[in-house]
Fold these 4 entries.
Entry 1:
Amino acid sequence: MKFYIKTFGCQMNVNESEIMSGLLTREGYEWTENPENANLIILNTCAVREKAENKMHGAIGEYGRFKNKNKDLILAVGGCSSEKERDEILKRHKKVNFIFGTRNVVDIVNMVNRAKRGEKFSDFSDKLSDMSHDLPKMPNSLHHAWVTIQYGCNKYCSYCIVPYTRGFEKSRDFEDIINEVKDYAKKGYREITFLGQNVDSYGKDFGDGKPKLDKLIKEAAKVEGIERIWFMTSYPSDITDELIDTIAKEPKAANYFHLPVQAGSNNMLEAMNRKYTKEQFYKLVHRVRSKVKGVTLSTDIIVGFPGETHEDYLETLQLIKDIRFEKVNIAEYSPREGTIAAKFKEDNVSKEEKNKRLMEIVEIEKNIGREENEKYAEKIIRVIQEGKTKHGMHFGRTINNKVVMFDSIDEYNGKYVDVKIRRVSAGPLYGQKIADETQVDFKKEDPTLKIFD
């Protein structure tokens, strides 16, 4: 029996699809790249924006048509949109066999067997306690692994649907996570990324209320074979001094923070129910930059939130100019059914004004990105080669998350490569491969952070 999984949304969905693929493969199912050849199709969906939800409905229609040729095809829908829509999916789409939630992906084999027996059902049970390091997985990479350490969100930002689709925060057992890291290291993986809706709140639910991501990174760094450790996505007010110090002192920890600020106006931050002020955010950035050598920062911004005045927007613009993020993910506000903002706040910023603000930030960020990248011109930096783009160039990533494009061969995927930068852009750097770790005289020291000496 062949299966196909279509994954939408965040890296946690990717990780959960890897787990479902591993479980199905262990059961004797065979992965296929062509959904038309599949006997089982699973849609792992996203609900963060309405556009993502519309993609789910479109995909159900597209893949549901395969049932015209294969009446035994099982079509399943899981993920955040499934949690949000619940039984409405079964009512609207008659060709869906079953729907499931974000906390029971480990039960996928049992659910498929129920569908094979003719059941049409929804199952939103909580099986997070069954998550463990020894679950089989099918990662897309041979050198980098996603490791989910924390589920759910307790923040209830007024615009966000995630707490309603992912539930309350729950941290995985510390030792089980380290065992998973060790498992990946034994298989030759060199990089791991710790994942969570609020990854830096990991461990706050263990009893003392204190985050423990710093301790987790320190312990993971002891695992032989693991050479880079990343984490995402952070919530600014949960970033501790201990975590910053750990990133600063631990050579294996990536010198990179994604800090979603969302707005630069205290009026908007309060309306969004964010748990910090812009002054506190500025102080956080100062603490990070004063301690972590060569650190790069990225953020998320929402423009056109209900009630955002021109003055509020200008404050956000000023924050972006002051902090000079390496990357800004920008979104125009759109109401999400079920959120506080959608229920109680009028969407009173016009579509035209939202788009104008977005495009202005895009242009400013392009200029900042290009200017920040100039420091790398004609310098030698080190990447782990990740693969090839659709345009044929290979690419890799530095320890501080700069993406570099260069000519190479697939043989070096997953290996350290030194690249001399010949051209910069607002996004990637472009260079020439000059050395790789297979060479006898390859130097151990990473030249990247020497740029900041």
Entry 2:
Amino acid sequence: MPPHRSGAARPARARRDDGRVLAAVADGDAAALTALYERYAGPLFAFLYRLAGDRGTAEEILQDTLLAVWRSAGTYRGRSSVSTWLFGVARRQAHNRLRGVPPPVAAEPDDGADPLPGPEELAVGQERVRATLARLPLAQREVVVLAFLGDLSHREIAEVLEIPVGTVKSRLHHARATLREYADERTS
């Protein structure tokens, strides 16, 4: 089964199955941990990569996350979806690893590009997005990544970040304003 993008987008049966799989992890079932990994590695890695700005660091944090899930699966109480709980674990692991680490600085690409973008230009565009996200304060970057790349609802983001829904909305509003400022800087 390919990784999904959001707990909300998955059918209720699949979400219940996630709960059973996590309960099996709590009972020490390594195959269940592998099943969770197969379902959620993609979205969790994308989230962690956007927070860390570095593939290697994101991979290390993902491994830290799986270890934390293995150790703490028994603490899951079902108050949120398993996917939301997993994003919360990943976020805590990222904060532990990234505390005090400045965001990565991206090199500025050459602006003499062909009007029709090829693979190199598309890669540069992705690098610009990554570099722009890295300029956001971590609190705003988390919300943007969870909302637009993790496809989580405001409520789910609030659960992952352990903040009120209003704070999620406020951070998204400020992040959009900051991103607009960055975009204006690049066009002027």
Entry 3:
Amino acid sequence: MNFNAVAQDAVIPLWPNSVPNQKVSDEQEIDRMENIRWVRNVQNPVIEVYLPSKAINTKRAVLLFPGGGYQGLAYNWEGVDFAKTFNAKGVAGIVVKYRLPISKSISEKQYEVPLQDAQRAIRIVRSKAKEWEIDPEKIGIMGFSAGGHLASSLGVHYDVEVYPYQDEADKFSARPNSMALIYPVISMQSATTHGGSRESLLGKNPSEELISRFSSEKQVNMSTPPTFLLHAMDNEAVPVENSTLFFEALRKNKIPTTSHIYPTGGHGFALALDHPLLKNWVVMYLDWLNTF
């Protein structure tokens, strides 16, 4: 089935040779349309690149990390749909099909696998900036739900070595110039986290060291990128405290931050085109992005 009315400009594998932390498995990637398009059991992580027309190109780019509880990826809903929306505004949209830590093909340290793919993805984009007519200092990231956790992890752990050197792309920085976290899982602390995302990433009985390491609100420092936060107070899946705790950590470290907390919207609203309060949030985000 052709899921995309507009074809992507490029599909690039993240790893040129062997994929780190991956062993031979009989597991097959699943990509099917249910209520939305879900991708599961990712075996060959890639980036799908959607570039704007030259006439309206702002030379900005945003890497998109779909959510799905670290068990799947809501691939169109929180990925391709946004890439196309951004293209219409002159922004390159790059969807990251990242590996999921619950995969049977993961050989060790399953909690590092999504971050490995995230770091590698932004380095590849920076290495291709000239070819794709992107300003390498205007590369942002956006993550949703568990993808928001991955995006925040990249924002606070961009300089942590989690995989061995691959090629010339790894000479580029993995630091995003900005990040947008949309109804994100931020904390792995039991009182705040989304239990399914935590168990998928860290396992059933994680150590306190791992919990702290992957609680992004505890890892913020003065080099953390400027951040855009969006959450709804009635989100019963991922408590709004994930965003408010992160906001407070950003404020303490004097990181330029915009936070939008809405009374309604629940979880997983994506573009929210039918919601009376949230329907214009992408416009607000793009206005904010243009300031960096």
Entry 4:
Amino acid sequence: MVGVGYTLMCEQTGPKDLVDQAIRAERAGFDYLVISDHYYPWLAEQGHSPYAWAVLGAVAHATSRVRLMTYITCPIRRYHPAVVAQKAATIGVMSDGRFTLSLGAGENLNEHVVGAWPHVHQRHEMLEEALQIIRPLLDGDNLSYSGNHFEVPEAYLWDRPDTPVPIAVAASGPHSVELATEYADALVCDVADPAVVRMYDQRGGAGKPRYGQATICYGPDTDDCVKTAHEQWRWAALNWTVKAELPGPESFVSASEAVRPEDIAQVVPCGPDLETHVAAVRKYVDAGFSDVAMLQVGVESQPMFLDWAEHELLPRLREL
């Protein structure tokens, strides 16, 4: 049976409301919660971007059952890897072992606030070094590390959960899949790509969790949903190689000017039809994913979505 998650979208919701959504999502029956880790929203229309780790601490205290996960933290620029390990271990303790740390190479949008954005090849080197730091620290090692990009003269985590925090790595191709199998306990992929899952299995990931994310815009009126999705999510029509390089919301506005409402409706299922949204999850299940987080576009619709998910969506997804 597929694990179904709920996405706490920092880019479209303030911190107190995110905690309230987490409590409601747990009550609705979601298996886990993922939280975006941004410094900026994608578009100014989204209007928020609180510090995800402060929200996670509150959510860990306010919930008792659901698993928690970052989606996705970049440990190469805005955060030093040793600090990421400390934050992850602390949330692991506060959540009584319910936390998974999901890591990726990040986007210019969030990381340039502390300095120049590295070239993609350098970013991949930095991510591997970060994993070489974070993994042993979470395992309880006293670490000294000297790399091309990071220095850790000496580090040890004094507060850790009884079981080390699991790590998931975002992957889309051979190199990132290799990192996921060598250093992590799970795979993350935003695209329902069976080729990535097969590659992960062949390189040693068989039997480990594979996390995806299905973006939808549920609501009683399809046209209203399409309007909301276009207003707040039109950047999703861009290629990831473009999205990783754009420096701010204004750039995403410019880059997505030609995206029409009908274009984004092809990317984001919109409206009230249950089976349309189930199909968005089924794509991941058929591709071999074990867990899929639902991302509901639009802050005003979250209470309605959570009620609908509890009574209709989740019971239907349990059948997959």
